[in-house]
Design a protein that fits this description.
With about 270 residues, the protein is an alpha/beta fold. It has nine helices and eight strands. It has an eight-stranded parallel β-sheet with strand order 2-1-8-7-6-5-4-3. The model has no long low-confidence stretch (mean pLDDT about 95).
Length: about 270
């Protein structure tokens, strides 16, 4: 059972800036570590505008229901005023609506909805997935445009339709196509579009902000790029991403390994 949906929010949950896509710190027993979640947030707090647990950087599609709930609960508990936009990388719209209800009960501010898993699906089916969640979710919807995990590459026209849905309050745009990002920014009206790739900020000047794994390792550098979108700043951010290995398929493990080396998390392994 779901509760009645409230009216569309008057403004975005987060209008711009740097968003931290949290890794999920687990111990050898697979349990999410609350002290490590607190440390992750504390290490980057001064440089970020919002927190985004349980998306791809947090191995969101691999989390058990128990791990996902724990990660959401600990993030909200230690957010200290930062908005919490909670990932729902699940197979169906019904599952995303269920996750949104749990996240709402735990105090989250929005649900981050990825395309349906197991693609490819037709453009109509993908649009229907987001429309169903937006109509039924207890939280505002932040769209996550990705294809690496879901297997669904969404065409530009469908993305524009999704952005215009009531209760959609933002998008993490990870298509790796600057042309697509710029088109979405033009068509999005007041809905902020965030770049999902650190090295493409200069190529997408209209992006409202950045959702960046690099924020775990150098939030200050990411923030400097947002304040000064110059070629020199972009080059420094891109070089840092290469240095940490953030453009490879194993980027999550590389982020965790560096956080472990710094003593921020207690165990560097995957979920």
């Amino acid at each position: 059972m779901t509760r009645p949906v409230t009216d569309p929010p008057a403004r975005p949950v987060v209008g711009g800036g740097l968003v931290l896509p949290l890794v999920t710190p687990v111990g050898p027993d697979g349990a999410v570590s609350e002290p490590c979640v607190r440390a992750l947030i504390g290490a980057a707090r001064s440089g970020v505008a919002a927190l985004m647990p349980a998306i791809s950087c947090g191995e969101g599609w691999r989390l058990s229901a128990e791990q996902w709930r724990a990660m959401v609960e600990f993030t909200v508990r230690h957010a200290d005023g930062l908005p919490c936009l909670v990932g729902a990388q699940v197979a169906t719209a019904a599952e995303a609506v269920e996750r949104a209800a749990v996240a709402a009960d735990l105090g989250a501010d929005a649900v981050v909805v990825a395309p349906p898993m197991g693609g490819p699906a037709s453009p109509g089916a993908v649009y229907g997935h987001f429309a169903t969640v937006a109509a039924a979710s207890e939280l505002p919807v932040f769209v996550y445009n990705e294809s690496a995990v879901s297997g669904n590459r969404i065409d530009r026209e469908t993305l524009i339709r999704i952005l215009r849905l009531d209760r959609v309050v933002g998008m993490k745009e990870s298509s790796r196509s600057p042309e697509t990002t710029r088109a979405l920014v033009r068509e999005a009206a007041d809905t902020p579009v965030f770049q999902g790739w650190e090295d493409l900020m200069l190529d997408t000047p209209g992006a409202a902000g950045l959702v960046a794994p690099l924020a775990h390792l150098d939030a200050g550098l990411c923030g400097a790029l947002l304040r000064d979108r110059s070629p020199a700043r972009q080059a420094a951010v891109t070089a840092a991403c290469h240095r940490y290995g953030l453009f490879g398929d194993d980027y999550v493990l590389r982020v965790k390994a560096e956080l472990f080396r710094r003593g921020v998390i207690a165990h560097p392994g995957p979920v």
